[in-house]
Each structure stands twice: as C-alpha cells, then as structure tokens.
Write a structure and sequence with these properties.
The chain is 43% helix and 23% strand. The protein is built from five helices and seven strands. Helix 1 links the parallel strand 1 and strand 2. The longest helix is centred in the last third of the chain and has 15 residues.
C-alpha cells in the first residue's frame, strides 16, 4: 500500500485529504504539521508522495517558521528525498500563481484548494503516483 504524507495545518482540509486518499484511493496517509516528521518519513524510503500546504502557520524547522515552498526545496535539495514526488496544495489559485509556486519550489505538481472534484483529485494523485513509479 502506497504511503502519502500530507502536511496541512487546517484540520478540515487535513481530514478531507485523509478521507479522499484512504477511502477513495486506498492509500496509507500520515497527517503532520512537523517538518522533522516529514523529513524523517521521506528519508525512510517508503513515502510515495508528499502533499504540502503552501501556507503553514505552525510548522517550524530548527526554530524558524517554514512554509510548503521551503519544505519542498528542502526535500528536493536532499539526495535522499529528491525523487519523492511533491504536490503543493494551495488556495492561491489565481492564473499563474500555482505555476509560479511550482517553479519556485521545485514541486512536481499542485492542486487548488478547496478540493471540489473529489474523484478528479484522486485520479490526479493516481496519475502522479503512476508517473513516479
């Protein structure tokens, strides 16, 4: 069973991600706001995908606040985790915003929040996982 780590600080969004990914996708999901937990899990080798909220209110790394763009750069800059696909989740979905965030972060993909098309989101994740396999 593929393992997906979701870094999300909004409880409603986190629960929605978990329900969609576990119940509709059949994947194992870990929810966290911790940069340390994310990096440890990703370095552990069994993470198939990371979904990162762009705006993280409570996430810190070595005592300073970090957002999803910074966490993505950390993952992509570490040889042990660089191959793990990363999807940014953002409410900043104006034309060009998501694309510039992907370019700035090195992420593999993005999804706009709120997620309205649940089946479409699951298929999007399924496609991203298939590309990474």
């Amino acid at each position: 069973m593929k393992h997906i780590v979701v870094v999300e600080d909004d409880l409603h969004n986190a629960v929605l991600f978990r329900k969609l990914l576990e119940k509709r996708g059949g994947w194992r999901v870990t929810l966290t706001e911790s940069a340390e937990e994310l990096l440890a899990l990703a370095r552990g080798g069994d993470v198939a995908l990371v979904i990162l909220d762009v705006s993280l209110a409570n996430t810190r790394w070595q005592g300073r606040a970090v957002n999803g763009v910074e966490l993505c750069r950390m993952l992509k800059g570490d040889p042990a985790t660089a191959a793990v696909p990363v999807m940014l989740a953002t409410a900043h979905a104006m034309r060009g915003d998501a694309e510039s965030l992907v370019g700035e972060s090195g992420a593999d993909d993005y999804v706009a929040k709120p997620i309205v098309d649940h089946a479409g989101f699951v298929e999007h994740v399924r496609g991203l996982l298939a590309e990474a396999a």
